[in-house]
Design brief:
107 residues, alpha/beta, Glutaredoxin, 5-stranded mixed sheet, 4 helices, 5 strands, globular
């Protein structure tokens, strides 16, 4: 599954609510952020490898409400959701190993 770009607050909240017990990985990033640009191909590649995980990408400038609600202070920030609740967070530089370990730990 390739990630979905979600920049509307209502759509973002609906995605979290409807995911149920499936793991959801949300990448909070921005277009001007260097580490976000470096993480982009990793996030895309991993999203294609895990068909049983939902991947979302949120541009913090476009969806400021979600960024504020989840207290995003560093970019990129990856929040892992399951059963309508945040279960893990990872901030900063991303490697394939770091992302896959977090996914496997939280599935």
């Amino acid at each position: 599954m390739v990630y979905t770009l979600v920049n509307e607050k209502d759509e973002f909240n609906d995605k979290i609510r409807t995911a149920g017990d499936k793991l959801m990985v949300i990448d909070f990033s921005d277009t001007w952020c260097g580490p976000c640009k470096q993480a982009e191909p990793i996030f895309k590649r991993i999203s294609e490898q895990y068909s049983d995980v939902i991947f979302l990408k949120v541009d913090v400038d476009e969806n400021e409400d979600a960024a504020t609600e989840y207290e995003i202070t560093s970019l990129p920030t990856f929040i892992f959701f399951k059963n309508d609740a945040a279960v893990d967070t990872s901030m900063g530089a991303l490697t394939s190993d770091k992302l896959t370990e977090a996914i496997d730990r939280n599935k």
